[in-house]
Design goal:
Length: 250
């Protein structure tokens, strides 16, 4: 065997290289293919938790989720992993996945952190803000207004998130804005009561309108007060329900 033949045996063939490249390309494509499914299911379960369809400490059974959403087991597990990272569920040994439950103290602690983050962010927003920013904010709030008026809970929930994200983004502090979003996300299980009763939704809508007006008027003191007051209903409603449940168990 000459040197050329030995070299050809030691090097991978063009066909083998092509097959390897194709395999490497297909795998990421397969992973990307499931991302929309994961995102849709995560959002559906997130809304179930926010609206109280799934209660604190309620189990999320893999087989039930597979049947409901027509998913493979590894996709369901990816969904549960993402929900856990979002702080919406917790997984316990020999029990499985449970909707996150908070004690009264944990709620108070979480909302104290939210108060610090959100009021500090409001203090950083440069006033007055540009007219085009006000118009963008007003457009988002019109969507929220319409959703509340028509009792479209899912649209109200998504518009509410978009509104707060837009308000806090005015601070031009993306790290602080991200932390606010993460803390708010962890409060989803706490907010279920304030998301389903019309008077809570109407108060939230009026608070939003007040924030827009405060930004338009350059009234920082009112903006900060509204950000703080806006957190109270969901916090207090959860704590009241928690204490009632604890009283029944005594």
């Amino acid at each position: 065997m000459n040197a050329a033949e030995m070299h050809s045996l030691s090097e991978p063939s063009e066909i083998a290289l092509a097959e390897t490249a194709l395999s490497d390309a297909v795998q990421p494509m397969r992973e990307r293919d499931i991302e929309p499914s994961v995102r849709q299911v995560v959002e559906a379960l997130e809304e179930d938790i926010v609206f109280g369809y799934l209660h604190p400490r309620e189990r999320l059974v893999e087989d039930d989720l597979r049947a409901r959403f027509n998913l493979k087991r590894h996709v369901v597990r990816q969904v549960l992993q993402e929900l856990e990272q979002m702080g919406l569920i917790e997984r316990k040994k020999n029990v499985g996945a449970l909707v996150k439950s908070y004690t009264a103290k944990e709620v108070i602690d979480l909302y104290s952190v939210r108060d610090i983050l959100e009021t500090n962010c409001a203090l950083q927003i440069p006033l007055p803000i540009a007219l085009e920013k006000l118009e963008e904010l007003d457009a988002i709030q019109r969507r929220h207004d319409e959703a509340v008026t028509s009792s479209n809970l899912r649209a109200a929930f998504r518009a509410n998130i978009a509104f707060h994200k837009a308000v806090f983004a005015l601070s031009d502090n993306p790290v602080l804005t991200e932390m606010i979003g993460l803390a708010a996300q962890r409060a989803h299980t706490i907010r279920s009561l304030s998301m389903i009763f019309p008077h809570f939704l109407e108060k939230a809508r009026q608070d939003h309108r007040g924030m827009v007006d405060a930004l338009r008027d350059g009234d920082r003191e009112r903006l900060v007060a509204l950000c703080r007051d806006h957190l109270i209903p969901s916090r207090d409603a959860y704590i009241e329900q928690y204490r009632r449940r604890a009283g029944k168990l005594e």
